[in-house]
Design goal:
Blueprint: E1 3-5, H1 8-12, E2 21-24, H2 34-43, E3 48-51, H3 63-67, E4 71-76, H4 83-90, E5 95-98, H5 101-112, E6 117-120, E7 134-137, E8 140-146, E9 150-161, E10 166-167, H6 176-182, E11 183-194, E12 213-216, H7 237-242
Parallel strand pairs: 1-12, 2-3, 2-9, 3-4, 4-5, 9-11, 11-12
Antiparallel strand pairs: 6-8, 7-8, 9-10
């Protein structure tokens, strides 16, 4: 049964150490465990390896760990939205291991399933495959990729019951389920905690066996990574009909 903690700081108080590997759920700013990330930032731990699809944006999400100089290496599939992340990579301050997005998801899934490595066609003949073992199966070349296991996984879910079963909401389901399985210890930040049995078994996405601690998120603004709008220049046809 998962331990329900009152704050993110208390949920992480004995789990953080310099040089550890963190796997963090989210995609851009969707589904990020923002309170848990803030608690990592406040702890002052350094020399971290972070596994995540990306590092958020400047000043939000995992971007705060970049700003704090706490990250040594990032295993990710995308850099573009965080200028400081990109600059530190180009300056050689930050080590970055790029993965095709599907390969990153599968590496996390494999690690969580106890699969040490797998072969994939993605990346064959590119820099992604440099220094990696390749094999030919049925006349097709594949590259060997290692599964990923983190010391600590931080995820964001919509709802948890008191045993730690998790349900996600819409696109926040992104990388969170595979990250949750890939941690030796997993801490979930959730919008609400319900009683055991309140979540129908068919609706559970991450079973409680993968989740050791749960914390209810504080009320935070839900950030929009990119807002694109256009000014309306004419009355829509439906509005004209109504007139």
């Amino acid at each position: 049964m998962a331990v329900i903690n009152p704050t993110a700081t208390e949920a992480l108080h004995d789990l953080l150490s310099d040089g550890m590997t963190l796997a963090v759920g989210g995609f851009g700013l969707s589904g990020i465990p923002e309170d848990l990330i803030a608690a990592v930032r406040a702890s002052g731990v350094r020399d971290l390896t972070v596994i995540s699809n990306n590092m958020g944006v400047d000043g939000i999400g995992l971007g705060v760990l970049i700003e704090g100089g706490q990250v040594r290496k990032v295993i990710a599939s995308y850099v573009g939205e965080n200028k400081l992340f990109a600059q530190q990579y180009l300056d050689g301050v930050l080590e970055v291991e790029f993965n095709p997005q599907g390969t990153l998801a599968e590496r996390l899934r494999a690690g969580g399933a106890g699969i040490p490595a797998f072969y994939t066609r993605t990346g064959v003949g590119t820099e992604v495959a440099a220094g990696k073992k390749t094999e030919v199966f049925d006349g097709v070349e594949y590259v060997l990729e290692r599964g990923l296991v983190a010391d600590l996984a931080l995820v964001r879910a919509h709802r948890a019951d008191t045993t730690g079963n998790l349900v996600y909401r819409f696109t926040a389901r992104n990388f969170n389920p595979v990250v949750a399985t890939a941690g030796r210890v997993t801490v979930a930040e959730v919008d609400e905690v319900v009683d055991e049995g309140a979540i129908h078994p068919d609706h559970v996405v991450t079973p409680s066996i993968y989740v050791q601690r749960v914390v209810r998120t504080s009320s935070r603004v839900k950030h929009i990574e990119q807002r694109t709008t256009r000014q309306r220049t004419e009355t829509p046809a439906c509005a004209q009909a109504a007139q």
